[in-house]
Amino acid sequence: MTGPSVPEEVIEAAADRIRAGGLVAYPTETVYGLGADATDPAAVERVFEAKGRDRSKPLSMAVPDLPAAAPYVRLGERERRFCDRFLPGPVTVVVERTDHVPDELVAGGERVGLRVPDHEVARRLPRSADRPVTATSANLSGQGSARGVDEIDEAVRDRAFVVDGGRTLGGGSTVVDVTAGTIHRRGKRIDAIEAWLAEN
What we know:
Elements: H1 8-19, E1 23-27, E2 32-35, H2 41-51, E3 60-62, E4 73-74, H3 77-86, E5 91-97, E6 111-115, H4 120-129, E7 133-137, H5 154-157, E8 160-162, E9 174-177, E10 182-185, H6 190-199
């Protein structure tokens, strides 16, 4: 899935906001996400503030492709095969982080949720910003996710640069720890993921 075309100048303006430590609401193949520089503790804190999210709940990060994740995660052989099979896609893979990922993003844990979205805009943004971008829904914590910019709560929208990519498909990514064989959240492609885990 690619979604409607978004002009390059809009992507560049959003990337500038990311590099400056600000927030961006952007479309993905599921719902609208709230992006910030995932390597900047202050920017990550702004995401928690905007969402009213408990700091004990980790955030995931999105990259444009798997090679771009190399400085930030360590993938085992089985994890790499899984990623080659399911990414890009509506899947969050929980993997070992490196020291380039701040404690604030992962609530002090040793693992981080990795996304390579199957959406052109959601990949162009971290590529243009040249850094991983937080991958969490652009909504107030506990409220429904937004499939269009008109559904993003004003409290979130007022803090963010909004990239309008039209309506998204909805749903949520499946969150999986391949090493442990654990599904943390059942979402899109769950049947194929469970089958892969059982066979590999």
